[in-house]
Specification:
Strand order of the largest sheet: 3-2-1-4-6-5-7
Radius of gyration: 25 Å
Number of helices: 11
Strand content: 5-15%
Structural class: alpha/beta
Shape: elongated
Number of strands: 9
CATH topology of the largest domain: Spore Coat Polysaccharide Biosynthesis Protein SpsA, Chain A
Largest sheet: 7 strands, mixed
């Protein structure tokens, strides 16, 4: 962790606050002052132990200057992190998490479409015993064709492939217990899949309906191209959640399937050779069967190499292949953070 920035944020390495609100910012200079006021209205009456961390992701509209002013005027609650260039929303969220101190971490967009007044309700849900509370924009105020429809399709696919059933993976307004969100690293555009990661280690997840407003300033930073990224990221998430610890099951399964197709091809050619008296080498099935057999062997070998890589990773990092919620020893119950 950067020492200089660590001092700026007055961190001591311990969780000393109840709630950290993390706001990724990209070209939102008009929205941020209004958002900060709304966050104060929501949190001042709820808790006296909270902070908001604004992470500017390489804005070029003057947003960093606005964030600096907010941080100077509200040193008890506001902090600002400014990136050297645009790294993406996932990187901004990761930085906010790394430099936060709260026991509960809340993520919210800076564009005023999410409503900070929903945060206390989500925190109440966390304190009921949930590890993760996800917002659901049931009455979404976005363009249907370019935003809502692709999002609905992506939500259905993610729920299907990850087994974590949520209506709205794309809603940025979410609340997490710190131990749930800090157990893995985020890369690429993977922030929307945090509930899937959390669900894979047994987190208790709730979904609540939250308010959603039309965009007041500027324009959306994402379009239809984001759907392609979601589908590619979904493949990664499915692999990491289902096969990261036993990749041979995936590669070996593919390899055995290809070798099975190869065997069927050879049997068919044997039938044509001895029953229909047709030359084996003149049939396209001959080359296909050989190709499937070779690809099957290669897939199995890739699975074995992946197994060695996974075992090396876990052993070198001393990273367990399990996640413990708590331990009961006699009359003692110890929560594992």
């Amino acid at each position: 962790m950067n020492t200089k920035l660590n001092k700026v944020l007055k961190m001591d390495g311990k969780s000393t606050l109840k709630t950290s609100i993390i706001v990724p910012v990209y070209n939102e200079k008009e929205s941020v002052p209004v958002l900060h006021e709304q966050i104060h209205q929501a949190m001042d009456g709820y808790s006296d132990s909270w902070e908001v961390i604004y992470v500017d992701d390489g804005s070029n509209d003057g947003s960093p200057l606005v964030l600096e002013e907010i941080a100077k005027n509200d040193p008890d609650h506001a902090r600002a992190i400014v990136f050297r260039r645009n790294f993406g929303q996932t990187a901004a969220i990761s930085a906010g998490i790394d430099y936060s101190r709260g026991e509960v971490i809340v993520l919210i967009d800076a564009d005023l479409q999410n409503d900070p007044s929903d945060i206390p309700m989500m925190l109440d849900k966390i304190y009921e015993g949930y590890d993760l509370v996800s917002g659901w924009r049931k009455s979404r105020k976005d363009a249907f064709i370019t935003r809502t429809l692709p999002s609905n399709i992506a939500n259905a696919l993610i729920s299907k492939f990850t087994g974590v059933k949520l209506h709205d993976y794309g809603c940025s307004l979410k609340a997490y217990r710190r131990e749930v969100i800090t157990g893995f690293r985020l890369y690429g555009e993977m922030h929307r899949f945090i509930p899937a990661y959390a669900g894979s280690v047994g987190a208790n997840i709730a979904e609540v309906v939250v308010k959603h407003h039309p965009r007041r300033f500027g324009k959306a930073n994402y379009g239809l191209e984001r759907t392609v990224k979601v589908l590619l990221d979904l493949m990664t998430v499915k692999f990491l959640s289902s096969y990261a610890k036993k990749p041979i099951y995936l590669f070996g399964g593919i390899g055995m399937g290809l070798m099975g197709l190869s065997g069927i091809g050879f049997l068919y050619m044997a039938y044509r050779k001895f029953v229909a008296v047709i030359s084996v080498t003149e049939s396209p099935f001959f080359l296909l069967s050989i190709m499937f057999f070779i690809l099957g062997i290669q897939a199995i070998l890739m699975g074995l190499i992946a197994e060695l890589t996974v075992r090396t990773y876990h052993e070198s990092q001393e990273k367990p292949i399990y996640a413990v919620r708590y331990i009961v020893d006699g009359d003692k119950k110890e929560e594992i953070k």
